[in-house]
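Practice problem 4.
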């Protein structure tokens, strides 16, 4: 990764962290922010946990604002403060990894991996990589991305 790309990734992740701070506080779910950025480096859309209802995840919220066949998505990057879920606590909704794969997004940037607080053995990163998606982790921003979740057992 070039230094310019790393700088841009950190900037977009900080934007996602700001979105996570908008999440209504919960004792049963993480506060997460997500931003989808096009190949041209311009934000396509964004979302955060519980933005539209109590069950919506950040990636889901962002993707719900777009048509499923949006031609920009295969060239886009999604920035999520937390690893996209591979299993949902709410069984009536698709996991975010499935949504990302269905959208054709080929690059995902995260700040931290999901701990076993609510779901055992999240394998979002592994599942995405198995399907050829580039996953970049920014562990130096993990503490900042976790900060609004300190009231939960991490």
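Answer key:
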């Amino acid at each position: 990764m070039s230094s310019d790309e790393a700088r841009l990734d950190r900037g977009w992740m900080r934007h996602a962290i700001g979105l996570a701070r908008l999440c209504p506080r919960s004792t049963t779910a993480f506060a997460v922010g997500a931003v989808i950025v096009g190949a041209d480096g311009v934000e396509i859309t964004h979302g955060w946990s519980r933005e539209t209802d109590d069950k919506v995840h950040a990636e889901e919220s962002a993707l719900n604002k777009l048509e499923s066949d949006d031609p920009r998505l295969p060239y886009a990057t999604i920035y999520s403060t937390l690893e996209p879920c591979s299993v949902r606590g709410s069984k009536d909704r698709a996991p975010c990894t499935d949504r990302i794969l269905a959208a054709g997004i080929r690059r995902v940037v995260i700040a931290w991996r999901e701990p076993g607080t609510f779901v055992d053995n999240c394998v979002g990163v592994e599942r995405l990589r198995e399907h050829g998606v580039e996953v970049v982790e920014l562990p130096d921003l993990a503490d900042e991305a976790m900060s609004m979740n300190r009231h939960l057992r991490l």
